[in-house]
Amino acid sequence: MNLDKKNLDKKKDKMIEITFLPEGRKVISSPPASLKEAILKSKADFLFPCGGKGICGKCKVKIKGKANPPTQKEKENLSFKELKQGYRLACQVILQNSAEVEIPTSSLISTLQILTVNSKESFKIKPSVKKIYLPLTPPTLKDQTPDVSRIKKELEKMGLKGLKMDIDVVKKVPFILRKSDFKVTAVVDNKEIITLEKGDTRGKNFGVALDVGTTTLVGGLIDLDTGEKVSTAALINPQNVHGYDVISRISYIQQKKSKGLKELQKRVVAGINEVIDMLVKKGKVKRDNIYQLTLAGNTVMQHLLAGINPLNLALYPYVPVLQDAIYIKSSTLGIKINPSATTYIFPSIASFVGGDTVGLILSTGLHRMRNKIRLAVDIGTNGEIVLSCKGGLVATSTAAGPAFEGVKISQGMLARKGAIEKVRLKEGEVSVGVVGNGEAEGICGSGLIDAVSELYREGIIDESGRIKPLKEQRKLWRDRIIEERGESKFLLAEVKRKPSIFITQRDIREFQIAKAAISTGIKVLLKASGIEKDRVEELLIAGGFGSYINVQNAYRVGLFPVFPQAKVKIVGNAALMGAIKALLSEDSRQEAEKIPSLVRCIELATRSDFQDILLESIPFSTIS
Fold first, then answer.
1. DSSP strand pairing (382-389 vs 374-378)
2. Which of 103, 174, 253, 281 is spaced 20 to 30 A from 494 at the CA atom?
């Protein structure tokens, strides 16, 4: 016994304490300790955009303590000055002793700016969940009708015939009836009595719709009786610690096998529960009064949520396990709403054209207005593009990469407090708009589009995207251009006591690749459908990010080809609106399930002209 205590004391002596500033969180670990694992253990809201591979340079921290020497990946992503000041990439650090780790705001997840839903569309409310108050007559010796039959007979009088009841609900029936003096409310979902409640609980009938994105989870709490949006909430997808793109997450499953799949499912479910927690607090609603959940996401995200291994989506010929809609008990997934509630996961269209695109089509009515040529673009890490023409729908997905989310951009960040979201250059001055109206800490996607567009408009960069040498620049901009270690950069904003914000030559190249991917997807879709640009009547820009961009600047840099006859319409979070429609209307849900059969998908990589169009779309000279 004394020997065991001695060994335990020795082990304690060897443990190290890692303190995370400014919050003061502490983690105890045995050396050598992976800083990434310690951060995950601390449950800090921290970003690992590339999943901890050391290639994005975003998990920047400042360390006071003994650690391994900087790795080659750190030398590539951090400047000599930053390394000298003690900055490291958290995913590359191994600690030998106790240490203090300062986490800059740019590495934390906080105050994310996400558009939730933007729609004035009206439609017929016909939810599958209904509440019916039943003031039943108690049994007597003359009326010995079984409890469940008594309930069903009363419901039959109201035209609700052939209803089923799960055995778990049946077990509760006698107690609920007698505790409520046989005055109860039946909650019916389609052909099933999903629960029975004491007294009259009509007016407390809610559902939740969710856009399960790779980067963000966005939810709406909806009154199923009135269609009113009670509250909205958004959260960074907790899976981000294993990478910001779906391929990184599939790669994590390849490494960790079934444990990896369980971990990713656990994280997204935890995120959904956190969104629901925010929704019910804002809306002052009880979780038990939420009886249905509808979810739309890309094909990989929907697989992960359902606990289905998406590995083959990353392997040729890129086949999903399932395309159909999924109906599943919310409690089976671990989602904390009414235990009898159902979760509805949208059908997918193809390997990389998922339920979120079905939601986009459903909410915008692209499948119904076939006499018009309409183009919908959802901009993000994966750009989904849908064309409605000639009585049909054509869709594709393009891997734009994470530049629009701030990844691979030297001072890029998500659209949260401190992010530059707007840029204007005029007469030698730069004005910027910052999320939260405070000091700039980096630049987000909409700010990046503005910045590159303005640099091109002012002639600071040429058609190839090259920042012109100082001797070729106009005098009014020369003070803002710095040539350092063979690379040029442009000063966007000077910040007191913090690093100034620059756009580098490498940032412009990353942006060009991303914008060319979106533009190429659009051009290929039009070409494959035999539609000229001047025939497009409406351009629909969807998604939270798409809702904040300056359309003229997007045209200037060639993010979209110029459509001379098209009206531009910002449709907001169309995937979420589609999920809301499916929540509020059985007809809309049936409509959603028919949509995949109406869509012809084009796989860009199989097109012989894909590479040529992509290369043509990289310069800024091809925007017309």
1. antiparallel
2. 103
Whole-number pLDDT of residue 173: 97
599-601 β-sheet, strand order: 567-572, 538-542, 374-378, 382-389, 392-399, 599-601
pTM of the predicted model as reported, rounded to 2 decimal places: 0.85
Nearest to 398, CA basis, from 524, 284, 283, 218: 524
* Phi, psi torsion values for 194, nearest 5 degrees: -85, -25
Please give the Cα distance from 607 to 517 (Å, whole number): 14
415 within 8 A of 435, measured Cβ to Cβ = yes
Q: Which helix (H) or strand (E) holds 489?
A: strand 487-493
Residue type at 302? Q
Tens-digit pLDDT profile for residues 521-555: 999 999 999 999 999 999 999 976 777 889 999 99
pLDDT higher than 90, residue 576: yes
In order of 36, 154, 192, the CA distances from 581 in angstroms are 41, 30, 21
Instruction: Map tokens 């939740």 to a residue.
Output: 208
Structure tokens at 161: 């015939």
25 CB neighbour count, 10 Å cutoff? 17
Q: How far apart are CA 351 and CA 310, in angstroms?
A: 10
Contacts of 608 (CB under 8 A, 6+ apart): none
